[in-house]
Amino acid sequence: MTRKKMRYRYRRFPMLSDWGGIKSALGEMKGMGYPPQPVLNSNGGSGVYDEKWFVNTLTDKVLNHAEKGMEYPFYGEPVFDAPLVGFVRGDDPIFDTFKTVIGPHHFTPAEIMAWQAEKNGVQAPRAGDLSVVSFVMPITQKTRSDNRAQKTWPAERWAQTRLHGEIFSQLFVREIVTELMNHGVLAVSPDVTPMFNKKRYPEVGWASPWSHRHMAYAAGLGTFGMHDFLITEKGCAHRVGSFVVNLKLEPDRIRPEDIHAYCLHFRNESCLACMKRCPAGAISRENAHDKEACYKHVARSTRYCLKHYRIFIYGCGLCATGVPCESGIPKKICDIMG
Ligand code: SF4
Ligand code: SF4
Disulfide check for 210: which of 132, 160, 190, 244 has CB 3.0–4.6 Å away? Predict the structure, then answer.
C-alpha cells in the first residue's frame, strides 16, 4: 500500500489506524508497546564516537531523515529545525540533586545503564564512564506561528509536531543507540524502555522517571520558565530528547546555577505572558505552573485533535507561543547578562 493510501485510511479511521499515536500515548503512560532493545555486540570494535560525531549525527537525522516530515495536509514540511546538542557526565552531582528536586523515582544515568548492562550480561559501567547526550529540537516558525493564533486548543501543525516529533525522535535515537551497540558501545534510550511510564506520584504529581528537560538543563542547554518549559537560545517551543552512552564526552556549555536564569518573571522583570496565554488557568504568579490543572486541559485536547485533525494525540503549548521566550532567550535577559 502506498504511503498516500495509508495516510487516507489513517485519516478516515484515526481511532483504528493511528497506531503510532496510540502506541506513543501507551508508551508514555504505561511503558508499553516499544520494540525490543538492540543487543550489545561485544566484538563490535570501536568507531570514533566523539562530541562532534554526536552533534553531526543528530543534526543530520533531524534535518535529513526520511521520516523528518509532517503528514497531510502539511506533507513534506519538516517537523523541526536544526537541534542544539549538549553533554553531561554520568557522575555530575546534579543527578543526586535531581533525586531530591524531581523525586527518588527519577533515574540517574548509572541506574538506567545498569538495567541495560544486566540485560546484555555485562558489568554495569561506573557513573564516571557514562555521558548523557541531550538535544533540543526547535519547532518550526510556521508551527509556532499557527499556535500563536490559538486561544484554547493546539493548532494542527502543533498537534502533528507533538505526535510525529515524538515518534520521529524515538526512531532516530533508536537508530543511534543501535549503531553504538553494534559497535560495542553500551547505550540506552530511557524513554523506550519498559520502565518509562509516566504516573502520578504522591509528592510531585504527574512525572516520569527520566526527564529530558532536566537532562537538557544539566547539559547547559537552557533554564526553566514559569511554564516549566526550558528556555533555550532557540526559545521554549521545542521537543527535547536524551540518551545515555558508555563514553566520556566533554560538556561544552555553561550551566547557569539559577534554574530560572532566562525567565523574565524570575529575574523580577514584568512578564507573565505565559500565564495570560494559558486557557486552563494553570499558571499563576503565586503557584507558577500547576501540573495537575495543565495535565487535565492537555488530556482533554485528545478529543479535539481526534475530531478536528483526525489524529490520536494530546497537546497544547499555548504558553510556549506568543510569549517573549518563544524563539530565544528574552532580549531583556540577554541585555542583563551582557
Ligand atoms: S512568558 Fe515570561 S514569565 Fe513566562 S516563562 Fe516566558 S519569560 Fe518567563
Ligand atoms: S501547556 Fe497549555 S494548559 Fe499547560 S500551562 Fe501551558 S497553556 Fe496552560
Answer: 190
Q: How confident is the model at residue 17 (pLDDT cuts 50, 70, 90)?
A: very low
Pocket of ligand 1 (CB under 6 A): 225-227, 263-265, 271-274, 323-325, 330
Q: Could you give the angle at which helices 19-30 and 156-182 cross, rounded to 10 degrees?
A: 70
Concatenating the DSSP letter of every residue in 96-136 gives HHHHHHT-TTSPPHHHHHHHHHHHTTSPPPPGGG-EEEEEE
- The per-residue pLDDT for range 295-307, each reduced to its tens digit, is 999 999 999 999 9
Map residue 76 onto helix, strand or coil. coil
- The number of the ligand nearest the C-alpha atom of 274 reads 1
CA of 155 to the centre of ligand 2 (A): 13
Mutational pocket test of ligand 1: of 228, 229, 271, the residue with most ligand atoms within 8 Å of the beta carbon: 271
